[in-house]
Amino acid sequence: MQPAKKSIQSNIEEEEKSSSRAKLKPREFVITGDYMSQLKVVFTSPGKTNVFPDEYSMQLPGLGIHHVALCSDSSCLAAISMDGNLTLLSLNGVGGRWLPSVSHIHVGNFWSSSFGGGGNIECIYAGSGSGHIYKYDTSDRTLQHSYDTHCCENVLGLAISKDQRLVGATDYAGNLTLFDGVTRQITSRTNYKMPMRRLVFDPSMQHALAACDDKTIKLIDLPSGMLRESLVGHDAFVMSVDVSPDGLRFLSGAFDGSIKLWDARTTKTSLAFMCGTNRNLWDVTFNKCCNKISCVGDGKGLNIYYCMGNKKMMLV
Hints:
single chain, mainly beta, four-stranded antiparallel β-sheet, 1 helix, 28 strands, 4% helix, globular
């Protein structure tokens, strides 16, 4: 990737000098795309001036990037462009390099992606506009399996269990479909009549959470697929939902810029605020340490908030 402020080589040399003196802590970063098809990696450890010190970017082919996914060890990235292309990139070595292209045979267009597994068995799952889900090996990019939802709708949300034994999908028609990851058979399907934009599994694999255009978050029991509760509180389409890595909280973001933090044990809102510079919000996510929230939308730039218990969050 091309550095925005300094060369990759100079950055690597600085890091090598620093690591020779002391062992460096892992650096935290956020990856975003935009309508110019520019993929950006922004390190989220601001200096005293609250300015993010490092930023790398890469121009991808095709139209704007509307979806990105990161594998469990942060070594591989999947990006989906608005014209339906799926691109895989290696993030090893600070920079970035292209991986061999994923086969697009019989695939109309991609809308969503999610990694499953870990280590040497990590795979990329991609949901298409025809209602199919394709599973690719990230090491050689070969197609392993496909899953058919039997609904010709855009697959907007994908969630994969760590052991890849449960595959979940939501689509534009409001269907939530669960598959047995081994047999590829549908185990559960429910239609909620409105588009479901995002789907996540909690770390304990007891529940799934879906962001819906009916202004609710659906709390789904796993593996039965039964609806436990429709959580209300937003006044606009819920565009995104995420569960904290410790499973104690979950996060939702709506199109009007409202963000809500929920207690996973009580399913009650513990904090609510507006993302002031990002109305028409598209995505929200936790970091791995559960102490920051990132959000992106049609507004200017990337917003990052510190999680300070149940107090009002501080924008970085």
